């Protein structure tokens, strides 16, 4: 095991391709990506980010299904589910041996990223599975919540659905815009952004899904924006809604507008590693934070 603290150790990386169907463990300190790799030079690839707790990946079937859907939209080779499961098992075994992980109330947490790149003209497409510790900033967002700003997306992504080359619904490696908006809101004293359409309709967070709740007596209604209007289907939001449906809760799928969030009894940004981050302020207005409901919704993900 490395003597370095977990947050300073290099990640564990496994390559998945035809030559290594069960995954080849790579040296993360050595060069891994060629200069002509189109995933690196053009963002021509897809990815999924997952949470593993005590060596078990959360929502793996949902992530593999979305990875396959994204790959299909980019006309990348279809990921072989058995091959990817074997590679994930390999990388988690090595990560456990190396002591890579972050100890939390849930257990030993790690971030598991699946990546498919177009590759270079010689070797073609390939996959990587990368395991690293959960950052402290992610845990802080879970516990302390985030300040969020509403920002225009610039166009209505629902209009993109008619044009398959715009890759609506694909989780691609082209995340420069998502990172730019986070830098922008941080310069204004916030931590996250929620996109809006030209008509002010709520879309999604920069790297998350939006969930709101309303309480009517003992009844709870969960709300999220329309899933088929240019919004990336969230695996965490989907898992929470599936569990809520089993419990007989009422569910709503938009449209949502800023007033719906401001008048709700709780708003969360949901993502696979951060889980649920309560939104404490929206456009500098204080929102109610329901700690009990946050714990209950989080328990839907751990059941």
Automatic annotation (TrEMBL):
Keyword terms, alphabetized: Lyase
GO biological process, one term: carboxylic acid biosynthetic process
Species of origin: Rothia kristinae
InterPro entries reported in the protein's UniProt record: Aminotrans_IV, Aminotransferase-like, BCAT-like_C, BCAT-like_N, Class-IV_PLP-Dep_Aminotrnsfr
CC per GO annotation: cytosol
Family: Belongs to the class-IV pyridoxal-phosphate-dependent aminotransferase family.
Name used for this protein in its record: Aminodeoxychorismate lyase
Transmembrane segments: none
Family annotation (SUPFAM superfamilies): D-aminoacid aminotransferase-like PLP-dependent enzymes (SSF56752)
Origin: domain of life: Bacteria
GO molecular function: lyase activity
